[in-house]
Every structure is written in C-alpha cells, then in structure tokens.
Amino acid sequence: MSSTSQTRGIFIAVEGIDGAGTTTFAHGIHTTLTASGLAVHRTAEPSSGPVGRLLRELLKSADTPDPAVYALLFAADRRHHWLSEILPNLQKGTWVITDRYVLSSLAYQGIDEDVTWVSHCNARAPLPGVTFFLDLPFHVAQARIHNRGGLRENLEDADFQEKVAQRYRDLSRTFGSSLVTLDASLPPQHLVRAALMELSVRGLLPG
Fold this sequence. Notes:
Layout: E1 11-15, H1 22-35, E2 40-44, H2 50-60, H3 67-91, E3 95-99, H4 102-108, H5 115-121, E4 130-135, H6 138-148, H7 158-172, E5 179-183, H8 188-201
Parallel strand pairs: 1-3, 1-4, 2-3, 4-5
C-alpha cells in the first residue's frame, strides 16, 4: 500500500464496524467541508463499479462466500475504485471521502484469512492521508443495527461482528499516524467537529 503524495486533493477514509455510523459521519464531513467552499467528492465501498455491484449482491445472499473470495473481490473493487473514481478526483484537487477502504478488508477478511496475505492483495491501494476510525462498543452497534430494521447482510452476523470490533481495535494500534480514533458513541455533530479539528491540526484545511 502506497501513499497519495502524488495527488493534489486530500483523501479521507472512514472506518468502523457495522452500526458505528460511518455513513452518517462521512455525510457530515462532506456537507461541512463543501459548505466551507471546498470541492469534495463522497463515495463508498463496495463501489458502484462492476465488481462493487457483484459484492453488494453477494453481501445480501443467504450463503456467505469463502473469505478468500471476499478478500480478492474487495481488493479488485478497491483497485478499480481508485483508478476510475478516487484518483481522477484527487488529481483535480477535489477532496475524496470514502465510507470504508483498506482497513475494512484487514478487519473483516483478516479474521478468517492471513492478514498479511490480505494486505498484499491490497498492495495497489494507495493509503488515505487520514483514516477516521469510529470506535463503538459492539453491543451498542448491534442495538443500532437492530433498531434500524431490515434484512441483515451476511457479514453483520453478531458473533462475527464482535470479532471484527476487536480486530479494528487491534489494527488501530498499529496502523500508523494517519489513523485517528473517534468515540462513535458521541453525537454525529460532535464527531464532525472533532474530525475538522484534527484536519486543522494536521494543516490540511486551507487557512
């Protein structure tokens, strides 16, 4: 995994277990930065590309695919996502915010597969400038998923999610200085303010 130093926009990833509020947070950051006058593009993984669409169908299926299949498909989708959507926007000077990226694969597929192999699969996925990890207790996330109703995806199994939550925390301690952990039990507006403060401290926001 390489850096994004050759690009002009700022690349931000948002991570966390299902129910942590990554989509709400990404929307809040996007709205706030856009209101400040920045050009910002919001996206998500699985992407809207051909591999991403296949992944979304598999996530809804009754049978969970082999973890290695998921790892390879997510890595393929990520590479296509980077080339077709993320990089072109960054090169225009547009900020890009993605709801999930490499850390998701390391957390989810790294449970049943060798995490080093999963990392190698993502070697062509340049790392974001900042990754915001929304840390939320497993039982709170599960309550949120239950309250929102609807069908669960096959990776939202409670036992599996508990393992993912711990994996995220383990990874957050070794991922490097580009990762920022936020308390996802706080109200969304508080999280957005904390994120903006972090971006400002890092000198990423225009003066």
